[in-house]
Amino acid sequence: MGLSSILDIAIGLIFIYLILSVIASEIQELIATVLQWRAVHLKESIEGLLSGNDKESENFSKVRELSNQIYANQLIKGMNHEAKGLLARFPRRLIQMFGFVFRLLRKWFRKSANLLPNVNISKEAIAKEVDGVFGKGNSSGPSYVTKQAFTSSFIETLQVPILTKLIARLRLEDFLSRLEENLKDKLNRVREGEGAYLPDWYKEAKGSVYQDLDSHRIGISEALDRLAEAAKVETRFELFEDPFRLQNPEENCYGLSREYKKILLRQINPTLLDVIQIILIFQDPNLEKVLARIKNRKFDDVKRIVKDERFLAQYSTKDPYMIEYVSQGLLLYTTFSNTEIGHKLIKLLGKLPKLPTYLQGSLYDLAKRSQESVEDIEQQFSQFQEDIETWFDNSMVRASGVYKRNAKLVALLLGFTIAVGANADTFHIVDRLSKDRILRETIAQSAETIAMNNRPNQAQKNPQKLDKETIEQINLAADAITLPIGWENSVTSLQQKKSIRWLFGIEVAAPVITFCGWLVSAIAISMGASFWFDLLGKFIDIKNVGKRPSSTPDNN
């Protein structure tokens, strides 16, 4: 047998693998689409990122609730292009119903077998199963989420931007209250004891500033400028006690120099770590127990109760950080609850989703790293977003590797199923191709025609996936050629006659050889259609090396 025949055998075998791989790829893509493998794996990977892959039931419920809220954000919700119409959505609804019944039956079986004695199939458990992976009312999710969309949705779910503004607004109120005391003293001295009351221009300026702050039209920096400008226009005396006012009088805006303004902004605007710490403090379950006892009480009663040492002593545990966290939380609560903005802040903190222990530590570490790397407060939040994006990217790289390994295993199982169903025995295929010259040349010619016609287009489009035109031509060729596979008598009769005598005289029966041939075919099918199409082109190039070129007018 010459080299050309050997190459034809290899090309024929590769082409048969290509045909079977196309079938496997289409089946696997259909299953992945119906069962939403990519979307489910992405959702579960994000939940693993948030929980540190902690499968504990308490943490899992927190993570599932948090991830559902992240997915409810419009940035991620807009990435989900769910099928429309009854016919398009019916298969998914059917699969979801079967999955729901299967999960309930599995719980019931485990409970009856005393494997999970605490499992209770209650209305709540049924509701959770009905909700599914993507939450209540959502039957599907996006297959891909950008790092920018996840980061923005995650930060908005934790209400970090709103909390930052509320804390800054609260600190501005505290600063102005101290400023008003000094202003009253100044005006009282000017009025020669007529009374300490705030002038109308200040009340109007402060009211206008608060209104614009609450509507997010201005920031703290603009608020300070407007108050200083109002003092300059109405009274022509300094509103702020600026220690730097004499250093650069040309830059001084009636008590608000550039240097003093920077100091005030650092005092009023919370740092990134301040916001994250407040979120984490109000996540403490011990603090929730304490706040439950003082909720809806008057401010003076709350201060009196908190000062009582016996009140905190009853909550002492072995955790050395417990008293510190609860004390900080009570201090913040008593500070916040005295104002209207503080009540909004407490209410917003109470509505935040419960964070698992792992995520609390990760948030603190990310915020601390961002704050240490950038000094400017506004840049800290930008750096925090970049760090979360990097954190998400690193996790998705690992998740992608896991998905590829799982897909490879599924491809191998599917390849074995196709190999058995089509009786694609590699050893029998090689034997037929080596003995049947007409079959060998027919398959090689079809393979060469398809490869030469579609290789340029395939290289330009997507080398990792065959296009529709190539797949259609492969399917047409498979229908036109009688391949040495299948369960016809012409194939099975030849397979049954095979036996191989190995070393030491051990004879391997035909069924064992057939099974090994199926196994080799399964491994080959799992390699994917694009792999075999690329390899087919290389073998055809080797075969065509040295051939005399066809005559052309130029050659003549």
TrEMBL record:
**What's this protein's name?**
Uncharacterized protein
Q: Does the keyword Membrane apply?
A: yes
Q: From which residue to which does any coiled coil extend?
A: 169-196
TM region positions: 502-533
Which keywords, in A-to-Z order, does the entry hold?
Coiled coil, Membrane, Transmembrane, Transmembrane helix
In which domain of life is the source organism classified? Bacteria
